[in-house]
Amino acid sequence: MPKTAAKAKRSLKPKEIVEPAIARVPITVRVNGRPYSLAVEPRILLVELLREALDLTGTHVGCDTTYCGACTVLLNGASVKSCTIFAVQADGAEITTVEGLEKDGQLGSIQKVFGDCYALQCGYCTPGLMLSTYQLLSHNQQPGDKDIRKAIAGNTCRCTGYQNIFKAIQVAARSVKGG
Ligand code: FES
Ligand code: FES
Q: Could you report the per-residue pLDDT of 32-53, keeping only the tens digit for each?
């Protein structure tokens, strides 16, 4: 290619887009009992913070629109959809993810019961369901069918048909009650 043509071609390239730097905001959170101090961009979602900054990938992203519940975590003891909350809104909060349900490196009782009852197939929804179960049993150790339905109403499972999930929650409730 002649030199002038090559030069013209180069000049047709789109200009490189340089995004302006976004100021980061310092936050502190306690996740699964462990304290963290971080500086995050205000646009970062809580689920991104957990998965990407803290490597807690047990919290899943399904819909990203507050529908499926795959991203459920506990924020100061209340279940929330972490795709709907900015990380900066969690400043100062206590967060529990599915990894926090373990006990001494072993599966915690809710995690074990879900396995024992075959309450999962692909497992994508499972962390969120286990946290919704944990929240339910934290304040109601004798949940009726209606309570269980209400507690997991925000968690969608596309595989199981819910029967075994329901059974797992009933078994977990009995084991919590029995100590
Ligand atoms: S990914 Fe958050 S509700 Fe679906
Ligand atoms: S086990 Fe597959 S979505 Fe629930």
A: 999 999 999 999 999 999 999 9
